[in-house]
C-alpha cells in the first residue's frame, strides 16, 4: 500500500535532500511539493495526501497556520504531519497538535526512517479501522428497518424499532408492539436473518426480543431462565441461548 506525501519547504535544496532520502522509503510516493503556504494548502486540498512533511517557517504563514487553514470547512483534510525545521523552539507546540514527529535539520536517514515508520503505522491503523467501520455500515444496511405485511385488510409498514418481541406459533410468527399483535406466515429463522443482531436477540427457539426494551435477565426459583421486558412481560429463555445474552452483555 502506497502512502502519498507532500513536501512543503521554501528551500529548494531542503526539498531536494528530503526527496533523495525518501527514495529509500518504498512505501512513500511524493505527489507534490510546495514552496509557500498557499501552494502547500492548494496541493493538500487537491491531492489529499496521507502524509505531509512540513517546514515551520514558510512564506505567507507558518506551518501551524497552514494546519489551521486545512482544518477549516466541511471538506477539511489534515494529513499526518512530520515537521522538518531548523528551529527547536516549536517542538512542544508540534506535539500538542499530535504531529507524528519533529525533525531538526540536518537530520539523518535513520532519524527520518523512524519518523516515516511511525507515520506509516498510524496511517495503516486508521485505514484498517475505517475499513472495519465501512464493513459494519454495509452489514447494517443489509438489515431491514421495517416489515411490510397485510393485516385486517390493510398493508402495514411497521418499523422494526416498534417491535417489542416476536414469538413463534406453528407456521406463523406473532409480532408484538406496545399496543398491537400481528400474525404473519413466516419462520423465525428467516425473520431473524432480516433483523439487526445489534438490536434483536433470539433468546429461545420460539422467541426473539428487541434489546432496547429488555429490562432484566433472571433465574426463577425453578431454575428456569427468563428475560423481562420494560412492560413487565416475561419470556422464557432456553439454556442453549443463555450464552448469547452473556456475550451481548460483555460487549455492552
In short:
By secondary structure, this protein is α/β, with parallel strands linked by helices.
Structure notes:
Keywords: Phosphoprotein. It comes from Tunturiibacter lichenicola. Residues 147-251 form the HTH LytTR-type domain. This protein is α/β, with parallel strands linked by helices. The chain folds into two domains: 3-140, Response regulator (Rossmann fold), CATH 3.40.50.2300; 146-251, OB fold (Dihydrolipoamide Acetyltransferase, E2P), CATH 2.40.50.1020. The chain is 35% helix and 31% strand. The strands form four sheets. The protein has a five-stranded parallel β-sheet, sandwiched between helices. It has a five-stranded antiparallel β-sheet with strand order 10-9-8-12-11. Helix 2 runs parallel beside helix 3. The longest helix is centred in the middle third of the chain and has 33 residues, at 109-141. It is elongated, with a radius of gyration of 29 Å. The mean pLDDT is 87.
Amino acid at each position: 500500500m502506497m502512502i502519498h506525501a507532500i513536501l512543503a519547504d521554501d528551500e529548494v535544496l531542503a526539498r531536494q535532500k528530503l526527496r533523495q532520502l525518501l527514495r529509500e522509503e518504498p512505501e512513500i510516493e511524493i505527489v507534490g511539493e510546495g514552496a509557500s503556504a498557499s501552494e502547500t494548502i492548494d496541493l493538500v486540498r487537491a491531492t489529499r495526501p496521507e502524509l505531509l512533511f512540513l517546514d515551520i517557517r514558510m512564506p505567507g504563514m507558518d506551518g501551524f497556520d497552514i494546519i489551521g487553514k486545512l482544518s477549516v470547512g466541511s471538506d477539511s483534510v489534515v494529513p499526518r504531519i512530520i515537521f522538518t525545521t531548523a528551529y527547536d523552539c516549536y517542538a512542544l507546540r508540534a506535539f500538542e497538535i499530535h504531529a507524528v514527529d519533529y525533525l531538526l535539520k540536518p537530520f539523518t536517514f535513520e532519524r527520518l526512517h523512524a519518523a516515516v515508520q511511525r507515520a506509516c503505522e498510524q496511517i495503516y491503523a486508521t485505514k484498517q479501522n475505517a475499513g472495519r467501520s465501512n464493513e459494519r455500515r454495509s452489514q447494517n444496511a443489509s438489515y431491514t428497518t421495517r416489515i411490510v405485511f397485510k393485516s385486517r385488510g390493510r398493508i402495514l409498514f411497521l418499523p422494526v424499532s416498534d417491535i417489542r418481541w416476536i414469538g413463534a406459533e406453528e407456521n406463523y410468527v406473532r409480532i408484538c408492539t406496545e399496543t398491537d399483535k400481528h400474525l404473519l406466515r413466516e419462520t423465525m429463522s428467516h425473520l431473524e436473518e432480516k433483523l439487526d443482531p445489534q438490536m434483536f436477540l433470539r433468546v429461545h427457539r420460539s422467541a426473539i426480543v428487541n434489546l432496547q426494551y429488555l429490562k432484566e435477565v433472571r433465574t426463577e426459583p425453578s431454575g428456569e431462565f427468563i428475560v423481562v421486558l420494560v412492560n413487565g412481560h416475561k419470556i422464557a429463555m432456553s439454556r442453549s441461548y443463555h450464552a448469547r445474552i452473556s456475550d451481548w452483555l460483555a460487549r455492552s
